[in-house]
Amino acid sequence: MSTQPFEQVLEVCRQTMAGVTADQLQNPSPCASWDVAGVINHMVGGQNFFRAGMEGTPPAEDDTNWSEGDFVAAFDAAGAQTLAAFQVEGAMQKTVSLPFGDMPGAGLMGLAMTDSFQHAWDLAKATGQSTDLAPELATALLAQSKQMIQENFRGPEGAPFGAQQECAEDACAADQLAAFLGRTV
Fold this sequence. Notes:
Layout: H1 4-18, H2 36-55, H3 71-87, E1 95-98, E2 101-104, H4 105-126, H5 135-148, H6 173-180
Antiparallel strand pairs: 1-2
């Protein structure tokens, strides 16, 4: 399995983060739990979590506020390490143990792609950037999400996903994905 789609997700995230200015860090985001700074911290920390999972190590407790520094560089470094972990021979086939269960490495890469891409959308929406992110990639992630996300994954605060939201049929694929994952578009 190729890591090219994950590499594309990393580039989408990088470009969106690069469009965030210091005066936007306290903006509310569509991800109800976090403001823009919180989304950035989750995105960098998420890469560290995915890498740790692939390496078979427990995720480190990390309360670093990445948004106070060069968060684009921090994301680039964490993303590069995660990409390298996904590229190890046999990584996609091995079983990865996470706090919420076991899955194949390919499944974790799919989760990492969707999570990272969705949070790039959150940043774009919160900072006035275009949410029409990588249309072909967004279409593929939407199709994958519709196959993988079961209704019992949705719920109130604490569930991985909120209830699916309404979205115009002619909305861009990234907006459709956001609505499917519970965001108000």
